[in-house]
Amino acid sequence: MTPAECTWIHMPLGDDDQVGMRGVRPDPDQLQHWVLRDRVPAAEIGARLGLSRAAVYEWLHRYGIASGVEFLPQDRLVGLWRAGMLASRIAAETGISARAVRERLVAAAVLVPERSYFVVGSPEDPLPEHLLRDWVVRDGFTAAQVAALTGTTPRQVRYRLDRYRLSTGRPGPAPRLRRRLTRERLVELYLEQGLSCTQIACREGVSAEAVRELLVAYGIERRPSGRRARPARVTPERGLQRPHRHQATIDRARAACAQSAELIAAVRETMAKLAAV
Fold it and tell me: What is the gyration radius of the CA atoms in the chain, in angstroms?
């Protein structure tokens, strides 16, 4: 089989697509068929596609194709994604990595209308804030991958990420962020449950930096880096306080002292009675 007879997917590649022929991707289904069913070696696949063996290995790695991995047809993958399943969930159910899921979705070009410009935030905008929050913040798609999936450009994606303040290390829109993460909610997650800023960010769909900025804005004292504090105690007299790092040991020592004092008092009382006899 010659390179001309093999299946190639013609599409604009993103900024991170440097492997293989510029402007095309090998078909994931065909690669899976060769590797998983026909057991074709990488060198022969490279000869069929007109690629080096190293390039073949790179595409197999990017698509998550390896011996022992289940054959996942593109139509099934696209069907799961169109049904609203996030890439991370698809990865958990199919056994391939989330990165490979993203690569295969881009290869499928599931949402590629004619490129055009839309009013940011309009009903026709293919890049609404909730979609970018799910794909970029929660699911880890790059700007180039989102652009390929929505028929836009990486520049349009990055502009909206900046507009919605969803870029890496940037917080979300302040009013919406405060409605999503109130002080009471943040106290519950950070102080009472002991979650880290990154864990809270993942749960709430915001950036970790946004959580850190809210901690400062709400006047909540941050824990030392790399260490979880015990849940704070709230008393009417002293308000919200952080316990001592060795509070449990201190409490046990105080209890032992109190017990010792009771024993000493009982011994003195007994000795006094004996002396009076």
Answer: 29
Task: Report pLDDT for 7.
Answer: 54
pLDDT in tens, 105-130: 888 764 444 445 566 777 778 888 88
3-class secondary-structure state, position 115: coil
8 A C-beta contact, residue 220 and residue 187: yes
Residue 66: pLDDT over 80: yes
Please tell me the pTM assigned to this model. Answer: 0.42
pLDDT value at 94 more than 80: yes
Which helix (H) or strand (E) segment is 239 a member of? strand 239-241
Structure tokens at 121: 């935030």
185: three-class secondary structure by DSSP: helix
Alpha-carbon distances of 271 from 2, 6, 29, 267, 268, rounded to whole Å: 106, 101, 92, 6, 5
In this structure, which amino acid lies at residue 277? V
Band (pLDDT 50/70/90 cuts) for residue 6 is: low
The amino acid at residue 62 is R
74: left (phi over 0), alpha (psi -120 to 50) or beta: alpha
By the 8 A CB rule, do 225 and 191 touch? no
59's tokens: 């595409």
Q: Strand, coil or helix: what is 221? A: coil
d(CA 253, CA 260): 10
Which residue's entry shows tokens 């698809």? 90
DSSP-derived letter for residue 3 is G
Strand partners, 26: 8
Enumerate the β-bridge partners of residue 239: 235
How far is 49 from 45, CA to CA, in rounded Å?
6
Helices (H), the chain: 28-32, 42-49, 53-63, 74-82, 87-94, 98-108, 129-132, 143-150, 154-163, 174-180, 183-186, 197-204, 208-217, 247-276
